[in-house]
Amino acid sequence: MNELAVQRNAVIELMRISPVADQLAARFAAAGHRLYLVGGSVRDALLGRLSPDLDFTTDARPDQVLAVVAGWADAVWDVGIAFGTVGVTKDGSQLEITTFRADSYDQVSRNPEVTFGDSIDGDLLRRDFTCNAMAIELPSKSFVDPHGGLDAVRLKVLDTPATPQESFSDDPLRMLRAARFVSQLGFEPAPRVVEAMTSMAGELRRITAERVQAELSKLLTGAHPRLGLELLVDTGLADHVLPEVPGMRLAIDEHHQHKDVYQHSLTVLDQAIGLERKEDPDAEPDLVLRLAALLHDIGKPATRKFEDGGGVSFHHHEVVGAKMARKRLRELKYSKEIVEQVSQLVFLHLRFHGYGKGEWTDSAVRRYVTDAGPLLSRLHKLVRADCTTRNKRKAAALQRTYDDLEARIDRIAAAEDLAKVRPDLDGNEIMKLLGLPPGPLVGQAWKFLKELRLDRGPLEHDEAVAELRRWAAEQGITGPDQGTPG
424 or 278: which carries more pLDDT confidence? Predict the structure, then answer.
């Protein structure tokens, strides 16, 4: 199929599922304005990744855009109007309509000094990558591709319309977007793009943590996150985003053989994603699991110790790593929930290795489950993914051992409802039995009974009451019918 046929088929397919584009084009034409479908919408149409969310550009100024969509759109929002963007919803589609731009940047922050343009060519020149610098003129449906975007999509190459130096100087966030597109689309950056990213990595200091975090999350939840991460590390960008990741590249000498922690962590990430997809191929990517897989060993460089006889140890690297993960994710402005979940997975990822050949007591199994809590399913995947040995016999033995642990968890859970392990007496009963008002002592008693429950499993009511009274006597707590302890 020749190039024109590819273009035409992509346009026809896009228009088939997006009749609102034709409707919108007719309104702009009637008002004497030009309208183009642009950017990622065109790229995704060519890649067969059609979306109801569409981006348009026009010569109409924002107030004129508002007049055109009045009475037609289901809803309109103008939070981006200062940058020339009007948002519209229509028949379930979300549309963004932006006036032609000819931005200049202040070269200090990434904030554009908005200057409206007058041509589609000028607008496309200011876009980040050639694969996003294509447009479809409406309603004629003619293809506009002054920078070879179609070839870039066909060859899966990531390049810039202007020079990479100009593009990244205007907006350093585009360097992270390059790594994100490598992950999402499987594109390969052009050599000049890699060169510019390497020489300009320090410019990322101009970007806010929130924007960095958004790009990193999109990269990690892409189809090929390993490729994006390797680009960040190889260009030095990771030193300004996740310095702990390149920090895992430990020197290995002939006398102290151990795995390259950086490569091991990327392999664990790959394997965790495989387990994620195996469980549910249609599920959304699991950002928490992927962050935990990438960061689970970041405590190793700080805890590495060369042992006599040529061995290497990393004692308590899971404790150190959990603290490091928490600190880094907070600096990247991740939510409190994500910070706590990822750091807890890092903290717990090594616990299984004390299981041996099944020596854990039922009490230890209960604690494993309760410490993981709602993260248990993710912890299962992380622990299994953490087995990267090339020794097939050893790998199979590890997987069988974890199979055994999961089977024991299932057996105990069926008998005891492990997901809801609680003391055998609730707070109200504790207060009544001990004659206590609400307060810290009730919490201490509750915690004692929960620890007892974990150690011994469910207790009969009378047994639980007796244990509570024994604990209270040891604490000097006088119950309503216990008298004064001697």
Answer: 278
